[in-house]
Design brief:
The complex is a heterodimer of chains A (123) and B (171). By secondary structure, chain A is an alpha/beta fold. Chain A has helices at residues 37-51, 68-83, 95-103, 116-121, and strands spanning 2-6, 14-18, 23-29, 55-62, 87-91, 111-113. Chain A contains four helices and six strands, in the order βββαβαβαβα. In chain A, strands 1-2-3-4-5-6 form a six-stranded mixed β-sheet. In chain A, β1 (2-6) and β2 form a beta hairpin. In chain A, α1 runs parallel beside α2. Chain A is globular and about 35 Å long. Chain B has helices at 29-42, 47-68, 117-125; strands spanning 17-23, 76-84, 87-94, 128-134, 137-145. With 171 residues, chain B is of the alpha+beta class. Chain B has a five-stranded antiparallel β-sheet with strand order 1-2-3-5-4, covered by helices on one side. The chains are: A alpha/beta (123), B alpha+beta (171).
Chain lengths: 123, 171
């Protein structure tokens, strides 16, 4: 793993790029709603533009809550990465986040993984 | 008798509730959501019902800010929450465009297209939801019963999970 970056943002405190796996791994932290989802959008779209990864792995272990505006950001990122043949992996889902993904019928559209290692090794 | 001179021990406790007016700023959503969630917990809603109600309060406030007020900041939103029998009733009053989301043309929900998820949450996660048009805005009444078994369990993958139900255009 290389390029471990501290973003300086509270919402996405760290991200790193694994060149061999063509994967970006980003940790997200905090509750996400209409107030801060634009910040998440900016970070994710910037990571996608910078690295053009085949995998965007989002560790949501520290995200106890998100709303539909956060879901919209994830979907927009998914649309972007699909254009370059990539996928989004969501790991370490908290119950409320998992429930919202189910309601949104996105739990089978994103790749849900137990943790970052599983997301990196999953075919 | 002057109520202020009565021994405090004889006064009935104030009914628990939330009564607050906020400005239409997304930064205010989380505090209101948490206040309603706390009220639900203290009066016996199970954690699942609390989470569902909190999400719906969030989505309803976001809809007011984004749609009723068109993203304008500084407009009033009044939120009241109180217990009525075995239900927590939350009302959200705005003075926006008065559009009733329930009257919008049905639009099939596409998970990969923006919009619609907020209203789906309200429809699926609450015991009751009603939009009451006002002369100068809208009143949304959301009800969550204490006994979670009084509403059908949420089964996102059971049957069609409401997948074929028409949804509305607002988010």
């Amino acid at each position: 793993m290389s390029d471990v970056n501290s973003s300086g943002l509270d919402l996405v405190p760290t991200s790193r790029y694994d060149a061999a796996a063509k994967a970006v791994v980003a940790s997200i932290r905090g509750e996400i709603d209409l107030h801060n989802s634009p910040e998440l959008r900016g970070v994710l779209l910037e990571l996608l533009a910078k690295h053009e990864p085949k995998r965007l792995i989002l560790n949501l272990a520290q995200v106890p809550y998100m709303d539909s505006s956060a879901i919209a950001v994830l979907v927009e990122a998914l649309q972007r990465i699909r254009k370059i043949g990539g996928r989004i992996f969501l790991t370490d889902l908290q119950p409320r986040v998992k429930g919202l993904l189910e309601i949104a019928r996105l739990d089978s559209i994103f790749v849900v993984a137990k943790d970052e290692n599983e997301a990196l090794s999953k075919q | 008798m002057n109520p202020s001179r009565r021994p405090s021990s004889t006064l009935p406790p104030p009914p628990p509730g939330v009564d607050v007016t906020i400005e239409s700023d997304p930064a205010n959503i989380a505090a209101v959501r948490r206040a309603v969630e706390d009220l639900g917990r203290t009066a016996g809603l199970d954690e699942r019902a609390v989470a569902d109600l909190g999400l719906c309060v969030n989505e309803a406030l976001a809809n007011v800010i984004r749609h009723a007020y068109g993203g304008a900041a500084g407009r009033p939103i009044q939120i009241r929450a109180h217990w009525r029998d075995d239900a927590l009733v939350v009302t959200i009053r705005d003075w926006g465009n008065g559009v009733n989301p329930a009257s919008l043309p049905p639009k099939p929900y596409d998970p990969l297209e923006p919009g619609g998820l907020g209203l789906i949450c309200l429809q699926k996660l609450l015991t009751e939801v009603a939009y009451v048009p006002q002369d100068n805005g809208m009143l949304l009444v959301m009800t969550q019963r204490r006994k979670s078994q009084s509403r059908p369990p949420h089964r996102p993958h059971g049957g069609d999970g409401g997948r074929n139900a028409p949804e509305r255009g607002n988010e």
